[in-house]
Amino acid sequence: MQLKIIINKFLLMVTIIFISILSGLNIDNSGYSNIYAINKVSNQSLIKLPFRLLSFDFAISEINKRDNFSIKGKWGVEHKIKSFNSKGSLPDMLYDLTSTQNVTYKSEFRELYISIMNTSSELRIGKQIHAWGSVDANSPFDFLNPVDYYYLFTDTDETKIGRFSFSLETYLNDLKLHLLVMPSHISNNIPSSDPNFPITLPATVEYYQFLEQDKNPEVGIHIQKSYSNMDLSIYYFSGYDRNFNLYGANVFLDDFDINSVTDTVFSYRKTEMIGLSNVLFINDFTIRADFAYFKTSSEDESIEARLYSGRDPISEFLNFENLAATSYFDISGEYYQYCLQLEYGLPLEINFTAQLFGYEKVKTTGNIIDIELTNFEIYLDGKDFFYPGLGSSLATLAESALIVNLDKTFYDDMMEISLVSLIDLTDQGSLFQFKIGYDIIDDVNISLLFYKGIGNKDKYPDYSETEDIDESLLYPFNGMEDFSHIRAQLKYYF
Known about the structure:
Elements: H1 2-22, E1 26-40, E2 51-61, E3 69-81, H2 90-98, E4 103-117, E5 121-128, E6 163-172, E7 175-182, E8 218-226, E9 230-240, E10 245-253, E11 260-267, E12 270-282, E13 285-297, E14 322-328, E15 332-346, E16 350-365, E17 368-372, E18 377-381, E19 400-410, E20 415-424, E21 430-441, E22 444-454, H3 476-482, E23 485-493
Antiparallel strand pairs: 1-2, 1-23, 2-3, 3-4, 4-5, 5-6, 6-7, 7-8, 8-9, 9-12, 10-11, 10-14, 12-13, 13-15, 15-16, 16-19, 17-18, 19-20, 20-21, 21-22, 22-23
């Protein structure tokens, strides 16, 4: 049924494009179809993560014989395996990868907006994907769109979730001004209980644990000045975190004042950001640098304006409507992130790119939750639960990191080999990725990728019966060590 709906949507899109062509409209389109399989190195089992099966970009212009107005979009189909029963034969494997009984399909417009242009400005209105920052990846400014963490290990553009926004870019000689308004808030998509995903959260947060907030529109400003050998930018943003944070806890008693339940409350802090970036060209060197300073705080002064709505076995038989105690974290803090990138062409036409990333807390404040009842006691320091809610996704994995990328093409760019290494400079975990791709025919590429993760189980050991928690869960590189895999991919560009 899902596949049928997707096919119908695709046929509808093709029909619209065909009618547009007959109407004299100019249609530009491109995209790709993609299929791959990921297998763990440890036991050769299939890792069932979603991937983009189809991506289709289009632009419709010369509407009403006007060349300053266009409609642009990016339509995609996501593929995710539910079960895989193949014994290894190619027909069985293809059946398991395509059968609607074994997979789920999700189609959506990742982007769909109108664009109005003149000689010096462009206004875009609709669902969009934005890019801030000068470095290629891991920029502290690249948070305008929330991130789908499922796609952290694929192409950077694939990670972003489109959102409705108003975007105005205007140029005045060597000066560029970008004004951005986003009416609603959208958070990152972080898998919390998927055994196929290598990063595990300390706790699974349910929807009823989130505090509903009235949020103001988010606003961003980017000003860029170009010089003969450099581009200098300044950024400002006011909005809300993309990652949720712990706001506090309520304790409810039942009608008999005997049994108690704890309602942990989560929400999104209000955050402001100001930053600078620079692109500098010195002979054969290209230096890119992004620096962002964040100031964040909780907005609500109370979390008790709701009844307990948990889903534990006790609450199914008892009513917990008596608020016995409440405590609000009132967390605020300041932190900064930076990313420095160096690009240089090595001998033998090897491209070299290196990044140094860092994240540092400047100061944090927060209340102490100290609740003591007859049969219940809890003590938590709010400062211990402060995490960055905006900035680069890399800050959730490492406080400081070095990333080195080497790549080279062969046979008239038909084959490409790349090696990427990421080293956690704080806790000594590391990731390595080796990839080889080859254009077997025009517009068809086949690639093989080897991914290796190395954790630090000396500092963050696995769970034992003598410990209260599994400390290995506190260090994401340990999970990515088990995620070590080989990926085979076939991609067709059109």
